[in-house]
Design goal:
Length: 155
């Protein structure tokens, strides 16, 4: 397949040709280019779907919302990072409610780790939340969160 077109190059060309200046263009196109507002729109739409759903459908919508908000949060905005914390916690709570508490631990740990990193970065509101609620979390969540925080400091 040397020198030929690949699916990746075809899709890349199609995205490059998409008209981002068109205000009626789908948010998914702008999100594909990293547009934070479009990522937020998609995250919020998925969250609305989650709130209107139950069971596995709710969980899938929460994970979809988390995926989009994580991409927005990677651009460093505090509100997006807070929403990611909330969604990690919501997924952990949903898993626990459905008898899958062990599966929820990594999500709770990510919520705590991100909260702690935000507190370290000077987010006083997140620092207060961590200080007042951290003792409610199981030791396994704290252990995994500590590993995530330590890992993030080496990156």
């Amino acid at each position: 397949m040397s020198g030929g077109l690949t699916l990746g190059s075809i899709l890349s060309d199609a995205l490059r040709k998409a008209d981002q200046s068109n205000p009626h263009a789908s948010p998914i196109v702008a999100a594909a280019f990293g547009d934070r507002d479009s990522l937020r729109v998609l995250a919020n739409a998925a969250y609305v779907d989650a709130e209107a759903s139950s069971g596995v459908t709710r969980l899938i919508s929460l994970v979809e919302a988390l995926t989009f908000i994580r991409l927005a949060a990677a651009q460093g905005q505090t509100p997006d990072r807070r929403q990611a914390v909330y969604l990690y916690d919501a997924i952990a709570a949903d898993l626990t409610r459905n008898g899958l508490a062990d599966a929820g631990v990594p999500f709770a740990a990510r919520a705590l780790a991100l909260s702690e990193l935000m507190a370290i970065d000077g987010d006083e509101q997140m620092a207060a939340i961590v200080a007042s609620h951290a003792e409610e979390l199981p030791a396994e969540v704290h252990a995994q969160a500590r590993e995530l925080v330590e890992w993030s400091r080496t990156q």
